[in-house]
Amino acid sequence: MNRSLLSKQINKELIDELKNNTQVLLSFLQNQNDGTIVYALEKLGKLENGYSKEPLLSLLNNQNENIRTLSIKNLAKIGDVSLLPTFVKYARLDESTEVRRESVSAVGRLRNEKAIPVLIEFLKDNDPKVVMQAIRGLLVFSQREEVKNELKKLIDHPNELIKEVINKEVNGIQYKSNNSQKHDEFPFSLKNTVVHGDVQKILKHVPDESIHLTFTSPPYYNARDYSIYQSYDEYLKFLENTFKEVHRVTKEGRFFVLNTSPIIIPRISRAHASKRYPIPYDIHPLLVKMGWEFIDDIVWLKPEACVKNRNAGFLQHRKPLAYKPNAVTEMLMVYRKKSDKLIDWNIQQYSWDKVKKSKVLDKYETTNVWRIDPTFDKIHSAVFPIELCNRVVKYYSFIGDLIFDPFAGSGTLGRAALNLNRHFFLTEKESKYINRIKEELNKSDNLFSFKDSQPSFVDLENFIKSIKGTI
Ligand SMILES: C[S@@+](CC[C@H](N)C(=O)[O-])C[C@H]1O[C@@H](n2cnc3c(N)ncnc32)[C@H](O)[C@@H]1O
To answer: 188-467 belongs to which homologous superfamily?
Structure first.
């Protein structure tokens, strides 16, 4: 039976009856199939009274591991210390790792000191999920010397999540800003500034932790006219160095959204093959290594009519191995500057009023597939559609923030930032695109509404002077 039919059959009234009457629950469980039992167990909600205890215990020998897991989960809600031996038994002996994990979680949820030795025992478990649950249970007692010492022993655990939690608990919060500026502020000389020059030279002069959000589409290796690299390795090295600098200038815990896609370098003749380069997949490990934490992958989906047709051959011959799909997607990889602070910390750095004004109140994209038509430009061959920039700016920044595009091209991101009451900082090396940025920014609704929003266009030399405060 599908879940919508189940939800009609097992409605709120029935659930209330099941959890408040032992006999009704027992007979219900005897007469239902596994799917229905799982559904009912998921819906039981709060269970402070003990009426469900006996029926739930009777399910612990069920063949179905989902049913055993959910029974343990519900038993834990009762908060009855006499269940401790039962939880310990299933934590030690059940063949299912899910049931074991849930049982250790149940031991922890008792929040009873009798559970401490058992939880310590599970710190040595082979399954990192079980260890994690044991840590969670023990953190309630983390002031006790014996617990502290046991947790410290995990500092070199092979699992990265365990290591991270223990490090935070043992060493406390590590982050100390090098920047005296408040989180919602940024250096004045970056405000609505377009610097004409090489991004790597420019970034050397940008102070640490100046930027709230970076969204960029870097050159496509040698696939377009504006970039020439001797080799793919050289290209990746260039991106790696640039994004290390972006990392340095990004504020604690803030976001970097990278738009790339695999590219193709056409074959030189029919006797040779064309070469495809999986740029997003090759950059990703470099980004993680330099301290960006992967958050999400968003797929930008374009209509098939707008992309290059690679199908003509296959359409005729239909021979396997020579299949070539039309590439209708690009990636938007979302990263956060790795931090021991939670996103809530970042939000708390803003006034209540700013948070309120930055809320995304209109219709928003709920999935990671963004269907947006590409924009074609007479001057620049690869511009961002304004809608793509609008979404990134709205979802990943607050009003008043500083938004950066190191490869600004026609400067679409700058226009989105201004329209959405943010500020921009753009760098672009080609003079023909700098002129295009001027035209683009003139289209902004907000350009003339605030005197202090006027963009300034500078070269590297003048930028350095303004950063040093000599202008
Ligand atoms: C894919 S385009 C970006 C297009 C942009 N997103 C837009 O909406 O127009 C990449 C841009 O990076 C610029 N670029 C390439 N290497 C650069 C460098 N070393 N420093 C600054 N800009 C660079 C290119 O001139 C090009 O305009």
So the answer is: Vaccinia Virus protein VP39 (3.40.50.150)
Please answer whether residues 120 and 94 qualify as being in contact, where contact means their C-beta atoms are separated by less than 8 angstroms.
no
The pLDDT value recorded for residue 183 is 95
* Alpha-helical regions (H) of 250-377: 279-289, 312-317, 343-348, 352-358
Q: For residues 364 and 8, give the distance between their C-alpha atoms in angstroms, rounded to a whole number.
A: 30
- Ligand 1 centre to CA of 385 (Å) is 15
Q: Find out if CATH 1.10.260.40 is the number for domain 3-171.
A: no
Could you tell me the pTM of the whole model? Answer: 0.88
Q: For 76-99, what is each residue's pLDDT tens digit?
A: 999 999 999 999 999 999 999 999
Question: How remote is the CA of residue 380 from the centroid of ligand 1, in Å?
Answer: 9
Q: What is the pLDDT of residues 6-38, one digit of tens each?
A: 777 778 888 888 878 888 888 888 888 888 899
* Pocket mutation for ligand 1, best pick of 200, 428, 431, 436 (most atoms within 8 Å of C-beta): 428
The full set of domain ranges for the chain reads 3-171, 188-467
First vs last Cα of the chain: how many Å apart? 72
Question: Ligand 1 pocket, 222 CB below 6 A?
Answer: no
